[in-house]
Design a protein that fits this description.
Helix content: over 70%
Number of strands: 2
Number of helices: 12
Distance between the termini: 15 Å
Shape: globular
Strand content: under 5%
Order of helices and strands: EHHHHHHHHHHHEH
Largest sheet: 2 strands, antiparallel
Strand order of the largest sheet: 1-2
Radius of gyration: 20 Å
Number of domains: 1
Length: 248
């Protein structure tokens, strides 16, 4: 059984520390980098041309037109969510311009809603078989679910739960960044340990086979750590003691 631990109201969120601002800046810059990379890659060239340069697009370049359209829809909407997501965690924006916070939040939810649906469809056509289907498919479903929980919480004026669920949601959005980071790390490790001729395509394929789960599972662990550190409702694998007492 699962439940959220929210038996007592958490203390108000304190102003962001200097370390917190630095971490937010890093998340913002890395998110903008991936958004810029996606726009620069796919807005200036067709999918087959982008695929000729290697990378993730090669998986979908020879797929039916409907799948290629789904790929582009995912790129655009996921990039939109990644673009506005970091600003949702800006304390200054939330305090000074709550209307902007709400509208960018709606844009984020729209990006995730469409992007997650497209990502789930794409999972059926990934290049690493069941590992990719369950990894990327699970990511798509959890991405939609956590965002919906965050949206539902704010509609019920449950702000602590809203913040907790949106941290989880953006941790999954940020998989766009960590996927490429892990690819770089795994390719580098193979390159450093390789003997003789290095086949770049094989290095990429080996690295890509590991990222369907690696790109988002550690993100959720970090997200849960941040949620508990901030005193927000954390996710439990067993009912809270108070909940057991009410049902006994």
């Amino acid at each position: 059984m699962t439940s959220t631990a929210a038996d007592t109201a958490p203390a108000p969120v304190p102003p962001a520390s200097r370390g917190g601002r630095v971490r937010w800046a890093v998340v913002l810059l890395t998110s903008l980098t991936i958004v810029g990379y996606a726009v620069g890659t796919y807005a200036q060239a067709s999918l087959p041309i982008a695929a000729s340069k290697g990378g993730l697009s090669a998986t979908y370049a020879e797929r039916p037109m409907a799948v290629q359209v789904t790929f582009y829809v995912h790129i655009v909407t996921a990039a939109l969510a990644l673009l506005v997501g970091p600003f949702q965690f800006s304390t200054a924006l939330r305090r000074r311009s709550p209307a902007v916070h709400r509208w960018t939040g709606r844009v984020y939810v729209f990006g995730v809603a469409v992007g997650s649906l497209a990502a789930f469809v794409m999972a059926f056509f990934n290049s690493v078989a069941f590992n990719g289907f369950f990894g990327f498919g699970g990511l798509a479903l959890l991405w939609a679910w956590t965002t919906w929980r965050g949206y539902r919480a704010v509609r019920h004026r449950d702000l602590p739960s809203h913040r907790a669920w949106m941290i989880r949601s953006f941790a999954l959005t940020y998989a766009a960044v960590t996927l490429r980071s892990w690819l770089g790390v795994l390719i580098l490790l193979q390159t450093l340990t390789a003997q003789g001729h290095v086949d770049g395509e094989r290095l990429f394929d080996n690295a890509y086979a590991a990222v369907p789960f690696l790109c988002w599972l550690p993100n959720l662990i970090v997200a849960e750590f941040l949620i508990r550190r901030r005193g927000l409702p954390s996710y439990r694998l067993t009912p809270a003691p108070a909940a057991r007492g009410r049902h006994s």
